[in-house]
């Protein structure tokens, strides 16, 4: 009989104590069958439920103990002290769990689902929050910022978030057309929600083409407008420089620029904001370039267009002595490229119907005697209870810089300068041109009592255009160490900084913001990032700076698209058609508007724009 070599099927056993070979060879072969593993009985359904209920009870007790104010030594207030996890005699496991300060594993911290956001447990609970008194009237005595768990139990106020967007019937109709692939142009008076709708369109197109992000090109006619919507200038996207030369010359430029040629080849939706400042001849050139690259006969090579802007506002910039301005709607290819044109009629910025009517008359350059008398009456000096003055709008940048500098010199406090941190992949000259259009300044100079404006949305009350006053400077690391600051309601506009990421040589500005509802918020302002980014993800220009500008004065050009609670305008300085309308329509109410040297002759509109605007369709006419 052959011997098994595995030792599993047969077992060779030697019962003797002999050491010689004969003894071992005489050993018997014993047949052996492996023992069968017996299955443990499955727990019953009742046993499973009982175990689950016990676990649920432990979790509830643990959460209750976190919210309780009883001392940790109390076993009643701290049921985890009796659990196996808290047992000091519990033998160490093979994988010891390193606990962080908040009790979660240091390296594998559990991510909470989005649905827990409203419990104050997400990171958004820290963004833009006021660290003020709790709902029961007692102040926090801790010298550190509250942890997420204590934050949830100490206040019932939900984290401040940007308010949800609700579109009007007009806006919803246009959004649906865009989603369906229609090329549209829409306009509307100042405050009609053009920018809000554009952001929703951009989001919808990004979702639609989520698998090919380069299919959606987000552009604008100016650098400021491009920065506001997170896009690039139409010139930068197209790779045409300043757009001089004929189509053949521009095509030569594009073919030499492989990235630009690839952008044209991949794009399916082209969004152009502030098309009112885009020259009509350039619009035609772009339409023909699209035909050539896409090898299609239709304008722009069949690319879906979404264009918006108000032709009653600032016109295209022309060189001195050049031919008269040509608007985009006067371009040869406009009618074929744009399938639908709409005029938004519902105004959101101004609630006073009298003011809305006055602005509409001004928009068309045809003021009634009643409106003229009302505008002249706005020359009175407006005094605000919180001590903040209006923002004066100037047509020239030099006047803005001079006005802000004079007001700063009157403040006898120490001045702190914050240089911006710039970056980007463009060549230095191109990048500098882009950065010059950013709202965030290259160098921000601040003093205590300086009047400032927020230039980025933080939450539903701290929005772009909110006015405030610098009241102090503070190192961000000190915010967590000063109990008095927490008690006084000092919040921080960004995430709580790590010490390694903070420039400890300079404190950050602490600003008391005046809100639209009459209340105030005291916030430590943290740096933010602005960038111009191609649809491929390439960042052409970026800037890290505090989201503040001096707000005693601002240029009319930079104010375009802004909503301001307090505005002062001297019409003696107005020299361009549309400037008066842009400046005065920034205001939200007549009470917050001061107009000096009002002259109806300064209020005029391009007649060609007025005639063309009557051809626009409104959604109300369709219903």
TrEMBL record:
Pfam families: PIF1, Pif1_2B_dom. SUPFAM superfamilies: P-loop containing nucleoside triphosphate hydrolases. Residues 121-139 have a biased composition (Polar residues). Its EC number is 5.6.2.3. Its cofactor is Mg(2+). One of its GO terms (biological process) is DNA recombination. It is an enzyme of class 5 (isomerase). It is found in: Nucleus, Nucleolus; Nucleus; Mitochondrion. Residues 34-49 have a biased composition (Basic and acidic residues). Residues 434-473 form the DNA helicase Pif1-like 2B domain. Residues 14-28, 67-84, 140-156 have a biased composition (Low complexity). Residues 167-370 form the DNA helicase Pif1-like DEAD-box helicase domain. Residues 1-54, 67-156 are annotated as: Disordered. GO terms for molecular function: 5'-3' DNA helicase activity; ATP binding; hydrolase activity; single-stranded DNA binding. Monomer. DNA-dependent ATPase and 5'-3' DNA helicase required for the maintenance of both mitochondrial and nuclear genome stability. Belongs to the helicase family. PIF1 subfamily. This is ATP-dependent DNA helicase PIF1. It comes from Agaricus bisporus var. burnettii.
